[in-house]
Amino acid sequence: MWQQIAANKRKTTIVLIISFILMLLAGSIFGVLFCVYNVSYNRADGNGDLFLMLYGIAAGSGIAIVLWLIQLATAFVNGNNTVLKIFNAYELPPYSHKILQNVVEEMSIAAGLPKPPRIYVIDSNMPNAFACGLSPDKSVVAVTTGLLTTLNRDELQGVIAHEISHIVNRDSSLLLYACVMFGTILLVSDIGFRVFIRSSGRRSSSSKGSAGAIILIVVLVLAILSFVITPILIRILYSMLSQKREYLADACAAQLTRYPAGLASALYKISHSDATVENSNGYTNAMFIVNPKETEKNVKKKKRTNYFTEEISDFSANGISSALSSGCETHPPTEERIKILMNMTGAGLKDYDEALKAVSKRKTSVLSRESLKSSKELSIREPLEDFVRTSALPLMGITSDQTVKETKAENISKNKSFYRKQKREAEDIVWRANGYIFKQCECGTKMKFPVSYKGQDISCPHCGNVIRVEE
Amino acid sequence: MTQNAMVIIACTVLGLILLFWLAGTYNMLVKLRNIVKNAWAQIDVQLKRRYDLIPNLVEAVKGYAAHEAQTFEAVIKARQMAINVSDNVKKKAEMENILSGTLKSLFAVAENYPDLKANQNFLQLQEELASTENKIGFARQFYNDSVMNYNTAKETFPTNMIAAAFGFSNSEFFEINELEKQAPQVKF
Question: Nearest C-alpha of chain A: how many angstroms from B134?
Fold first, then answer.
């Protein structure tokens, strides 16, 4: 744990430095562009270009430093509130939802936090949760109302343990900095790109002075590189920052709760939900327990709407970066995370590491060697009754208790029929897409007809009733 | 002259390094010991909370199951015994285990009274007490972890010399009789 915290503190510094350099780069290029364009447009010779460029660099980087400082101050003073405001989150009133309060308190005691984080609620049907805060004692856990209605106690415990692990490992502070800093840089480079495109139309009419032209071309290339590549770079950096820590938080959650299936079942329910979160974007997605985009993808498969891709491209204006964004996700695939959790043979970090290697077939370990060494042998506890009844996945850690065994069988058969139903629904969509006509007989038999059967009379294979397939 | 100066400088540098190392190690030990102390305080808070909740629970059950007097007496007696143990960690752990056992039997009794199980007040108490039991379990988990960290740091070379010189004493684990690895989850 300690090594992890130290590593994250180092990474926070790196994020700050990189964002500073990127800001400086974008600022100076922007400054050069602005000066060279505006002035050389009005002048007959390009002799003053070098001086102008220096002037532009100085002015641009000056503005950039000021902006960077403002970003830093925003992240430091108001980071929590900004993020919470994006989602219209409000603080959980005292004496309401006692179970949630208890679960949060239990998990912060288990993780040894000095005091439990404040709890915020988001009014949304989509089950999801995130944690943010610059330090453990200023941290916040936010859950949606959808999460509270869909999860049982064990699942809720798993989700909260995951979020509290983020707080303990200082992931949330790193993400908050990254969110605010990179978000602003992206905004600036977006604006820069747009201004650049607009002014380049004007530029074509004035090409004066060969030396100036060369310099201008160099500047142009640099500008294109920075405005196009910066967002991509940030994305890659960002996903590198957040993928590993999702695994780690899952591992810590399993260790804290001693019940990996709780989190696994919660992840399943969250990723298979129908509802969507409003106001989420590419930069805050990393904060949630399951990337809202992935839930959207599942919804999209079912409803065939294109709602979310539009929202993304609207935010990051240039198409290249949004096309690339699918290549670098902020979260590892949820299905893999569920599989790893379900394959754990114990509740310790070592067990998670082994399951991870088995499921994802990777050789390197996600967890640091020191934390693996200090990991103890921990066995998986029994689930609560509530969980046995409402789990989305098969159970684990069950003892010889007869009644529990029966419920387990029931649970599994329920899951099987659920999968079958889902498969049938998916098949129906394919049939419909191919123009098949759906008909239901009075006896309850469902029939699908190819287009060539239009206008014919068919008798039902079960009861013999004659059915007419309309045009 | 110059040689003397060199020796003096070398000695000062070495002395400073030693001093910094000493201070660093001492501070680390103090930090670890404080974590153990805080963890113990957290257990204590939760145990007190349980003492406070138990009379309310007994009252709530009494109204519905008056003739289960034996169970009530056992719970109340176990609670009193647990409160009376003050400093000894081992003894305290033992008493708290007995109390947990009697509480389980109290909830088992409640199972037989459907009216009681429908009572909102009782349900709230049940959630509170179940959560408090969980918190005790998790606090114990964290306490034992921090005791292990502290004891390991204290016993390894060369930290053990400093620990001995400044009188850092060993901390005791809060053991329970069942499998210690078993999760601290309580079902009522």
Answer: 7
